[in-house]
Amino acid sequence: xxxxDELSESLEDYLEIILQxxxxxxxxxxKDIAERxxxxxxxxxxxLKNLKEKKLINYEPYSFITLTPTGKKLAKEITHRHTVLxxxxxxxxxxxxxxxxxxACRMEHVIDNKSLEKLxxxxxxxxxxxxxxxxxxxxxxxxxSSGKLDPEKCERCLDDCRARHQ
Amino acid sequence: xxxxDELSESLEDYLEIILQxxxxxxxxxxKDIAERxxxxxxxxxxxLKNLKEKKLINYEPYSFITLTPTGKKLAKEITHRHTVLxxxxxxxxxxxxxxxxxxACRMEHVIDNKSLEKLxxxxxxxxxxxxxxxxxxxxxxxxxSSGKLDPEKCERCLDDCRARHQ
DNA sequence: TAATAAAGTTAGTCTAACAAAACAATCTAC
DNA sequence: GTAGATTGTTTTGTTAGACTAACTTTATTA
Lengths: 166, 166
Fold this sequence. Notes:
Two copies of one chain form a homodimer.
Chain A: H1 9-25, H2 30-37, H3 41-53, E1 57-58, E2 66-67, H4 69-92, H5 97-107, H6 113-128, H7 134-146, H8 151-164
Antiparallel strand pairs in A: 1-2
Helix pairs in contact in A: 1-2, 1-4, 2-3, 4-5, 4-6
The first copy, chain A, binds a DNA duplex through helix 3.
């Protein structure tokens, strides 16, 4: 048991998965958790005991598993971090689904609230600022594939931007 | 020992710190490593044995510690990840030094090459695209503090952008 | 409803990472 | 050049998280 109330990355993953299962099939079963976590069933039991002790899930041996209010709140926070990161990786950096998902999965455990908040703001800023916007994001993808800025393209891009906001 | 050649986060940190010490005082001493890693000296010895076994450092009991070529290459890669992340957090998201540094320290162990590459490209794109650039980044900071886009400010911002690139 | 399969638990083992404390080597300074 | 301080190592112990295998409970089905 961790003396502080900090959850380990592993326990955060368990919580997140339990929330997913709760939402998709009302109740989380140890077998499904094991599958999604890619661990043995025995490992799940220990994790569940641990989470119960932290009052994050309702759990008795052989019973179904549900999140407590605190657990649900936490699980939603973790999911939120995941979502923000994945959206940024997917829609701004325009990484492929697989990479975005996998990277978000790992980053969600290490990003702090301040950074997350800023990232979210930046995302919104990009989509709302007249100088940026959807077409600007697309221009980035073009920059990625060509590796350089083409002055002619930039000229046209600027004109379009101008035209859209006069 | 890890069967794959993947380094644990902890060992990555050791490598990074050894590189720093090598650069700042020619040679890394166990005591300094312990200090920077915030661990006991005894823990350092074990880590050093581990890194030696992986052929990443030159190390004999009571000797000085230096990186092998492989070790140096790896240490520089880790440092590179750190730098790219810190720069993004600091200069784009405009987080404070502390947060940027701490977040980069944790993210450097989980970001993959694809995502890092894109992040770096994005950074360059922002500073080179005529529609973005330094003043656009500053406009983001303004958006962060005011929490909204002010149509008048946007108008002026667009004009400035136009003026700069006709 | 009894046999079997599936799901869950328990107990024991392993590894990584660290700490604490005893011990050994090396350095420093008289 | 030796005493004491500093630095490095070793040993022992802890914790978290996983694994395996044996076992128990629950569910299914014939």
